[in-house]
Amino acid sequence: MDSERRALLRRVALAGAVGLAGCAGDGDDTGGTETEAGATTETTTAGAGAGTETGTQTPTRTETDAPTETPTETETETETDTLTQTETQTQTESSSDPQSSVTVSVGANGRTRFDPESFVLERRGTVTWEWASGGHNIVVAAQPDGADWSGTPGGSSTTYDGGYSYEESFDVAGEYEYYCQPHRSFGMTGSFTVE
């Protein structure tokens, strides 16, 4: 009985020593096979005397070597802005000649702007302001002596919604300046010259 007990203790001690040697290794993978998923499979064989024990240990190793992507911001010019700039440039370039009538878009494309912002009008010419968005008005900032333009009806406290239209004819030559009261601080101003 004593000899069986000693044989059993030797097998247990030998199996434990082999198991610890696998765990306490210096990090190389000798004695094991690395699989594609990054797990190591080790096979240990221990035995002296009565039998052979075979065990498989599969420690799980998690490694993340994948590069981390950082999103970058890029500036792009929208098609709407490009079209608006092109239209404005065309109107400004062709507005140096006096025109008999001019249509001004008020708040086009949701922007706080008059389009065109400036132009030249013939004497007795007509300007039509058409509201593309709501909450705007026209307040006179400056006009030549003898002119009696008062801007949109209701004064600076009255605004109008999209679809509203306001028309005025101008007989007195000179410089005219105007603005939208609610959006003046955003640069919503306009001017024209009557020749």
How would you characterize the overall build of this protein?
The chain is α+β, with helices and mostly antiparallel strands. Among the domains are: 1-21 and 42-48, no CATH class; 95-194, Immunoglobulin-like, CATH 2.60.40.420. The protein has helices at residues 2-23, 79-94; strands at 32-34, 40-46, 53-57, 99-106, 114-115, 118-131, 139-142, 165-170, 174-179, 189-194. Strands 4, 5, 6, 7, 8, 9 and 10 form a seven-stranded mixed beta sheet that branches. It starts with a helix and ends with a strand.
What descriptors fit this protein?
195 residues, alpha+beta, Immunoglobulin-like, seven-stranded mixed sheet, three-stranded antiparallel sheet, rod-shaped
Short description:
Helix content is about 20%, strand content about 30%. The protein has about 200 residues and is of the alpha+beta class.
